[in-house]
Design goal:
single chain; 245 residues; mainly beta; twelve-stranded antiparallel sheet; four-stranded antiparallel sheet; 2 helices; 45% strand; disordered N terminus
Length: 245
């Protein structure tokens, strides 16, 4: 491997590691207990944690041992906030903000009772809105929107069908990554939980999902939706639904 190939590989690894930091939705700010000089002492007020070279890593606010108030996670420079997360009595509550290395806003995410609930917005480094998603009770909802750098709304995929005899083949109008199709009902008609008892995974044959209307009759499908979960080119989860009858 020559120097150019090594450099390209390092750049790719950096991009993927940054992507993991920014796309991770397990947004929690915890103090490292191994660095706590008084592990048995009840935490109260502001607790700061530093790296071994004395760069600020986290600021966590406590109220009688429970996280309460806004806590902060910092980038490796120890100065720029990576994540600001509001807590109320130990649970994530309110709107968190995640930032790029240069301090510009990357995402704002709404939480209720420690779960994703409400709007999540992503931004380009220019400050232009990049994507909008809706969550409810910790589950992604329908209606994801994505934008180009100039602010134009991207065209999003829709569920398409093709019927031959008793078989309805399912696809998307625009390709998206790993499309998976279900039949059933979303929570409140818009939030997708793949393990919900009202959702059934459809059968795949020769790389395509399908519905056999001898099994799923039109009278049954009249009250159900076909649901698709896939990933966009921006790596956002997209939930689509379509009523067949």
């Amino acid at each position: 491997m020559n120097k150019t190939q090594i450099l390209i590989a390092l750049v790719i690894l950096t991009i993927f590691s940054m992507g993991a930091v920014y796309t991770n939705l397990t947004e929690l700010i915890d103090e490292n207990e191994t660095l706590n000089p008084n592990p048995k002492k009840m935490k109260d007020g502001e607790v700061r944690q530093y790296t071994k070279d004395q760069r600020l890593k986290t600021i966590v606010n406590y109220d009688q041992g429970v996280k309460h108030g806004t806590s902060y996670l910092y980038h490796d420079d120890g100065e720029t906030v990576l994540l600001a997360m509001p807590y109320v009595k130990g649970k994530r509550e309110g709107v968190s903000e995640k930032y790029y290395q240069d301090g510009k806003l990357y995402a704002s995410t709404s939480y209720r009772n420690d779960r994703l609930h409400g709007s999540r917005k992503l931004y380009y480094t220019s400050g232009q809105l990049k994507a909008e998603m809706n969550y409810g009770y910790g589950n992604i909802g329908i209606g994801t929107k994505e934008y180009l750098l100039d602010g134009a709304l991207k065209k999003m995929p829709e569920i398409t069908t093709k019927t031959v005899g008793n078989i309805i083949t399912l696809d998307t109008s625009i390709p998206c990554k790993d499309p998976t199709f279900y039949v059933g009902r979303l929570i409140e008609g818009q939030f997708f939980d793949p393990v919900n008892e009202n959702i059934r995974l459809l059968t795949m044959s020769q790389g395509k999902y399908f519905i056999n209307i001898e099994m799923y009759t039109p009278s049954y499908l009249k009250y159900q939706d076909v649901i698709c979960s896939c990933e966009s080119s921006q790596r956002n989860t997209i939930i689509l639904k379509k009523r067949l009858y």
